Amino acid sequence: MIREISAGGVVVRRTGNGWEMAVIEPQKEPIQDGGSASGKKKSQKLLLALPKGIVDTGEKSEETAVREVREETGLTAVLVTKLRDIKYVYVRSWGDKQRVFKIVSFFLLKYEAGCIDEIDPAMRIEVKQALWIPLEGSEHKLAYSGEKEVVRLAQEYLKSHSDEIDVGGIDPPRV
Questions:
Q1: β partners of residue 76
Q2: Burial grade of 105 (CB within 10 A; 0-12, 13-18, 19 or more)
Q3: Does a structural domain hold residue 85?
Q4: Global pTM?
Q5: Element (H, E) at 68
Q6: Does some domain include residue 107?
Q7: Does residue 105 lie in a domain region?
Q8: Under a CB-based contact definition with an 8 Å cutoff, are residues 79 and 91 in contact?
């Protein structure tokens, strides 16, 4: 079985309304409405996920998490702590259809700079949009159960370490 090692992050910032976290809407093909004579495409439910990606050769998982956050959200963030590893098996939906054993290391990151969703146009093949959502209740908005657990761990960490983490900063207005 093929193995893949990835890393990603829960990026948080404190605003006047409390904690927010950065999420992505992965790029997905629209669902075709087979029963429609007009051939119109059905809209899909909003699928939200955490930014993550494959660990490059010679790269540490912490470095990958910071890089993937920057590439997929447009944000610069710094490492706070490791949250957990998620392990699962999936079958590739493209190419060889092989089974893959995947390990994803997730880290809590604090927002430093950047405007959400200002990403390289080449990343649009992977990311439809990046956005801030309130951290509270965000675990109910994510698509994947492992990522929901990671967000719960981030929430617990912030409850007990909130005073130690200076996560300031609000995106400048978009022009």
A1: 113
A2: buried
A3: yes
A4: 0.84
A5: helix 61-73
A6: yes
A7: yes
A8: no
Question: Residue 18 belongs to what domain range?
Answer: 2-29+44-164
Q: Write down the pLDDT at residue 34.
A: 43
Render pLDDT for 35-65 as a digit per residue (tens, 0 to 9).
444 444 445 578 999 999 999 999 999 999 9
Q: How many domains does the chain have?
A: 1
Tell me the pLDDT tens digit for each residue of 60-114. 999 999 999 999 999 999 999 999 999 999 998 878 889 999 999 999 999 999 9
Paired tokens of 99: 């089974």
Q: How far apart are the first and last CA of the chain?
A: 48
By the 8 A CB rule, do 58 and 64 touch? no
d(CA 58, CA 142): 30
Which of 86, 43, 41 is closest to 61 using CA atoms? Answer: 86
The C-alpha atoms of residue 153 and residue 38 are separated, in whole angstroms, by: 46
Rg for the chain, CA atoms, rounded: 17
Residue 100's CATH number: 3.90.79.10
The answer as to whether 34 is a domain residue is no
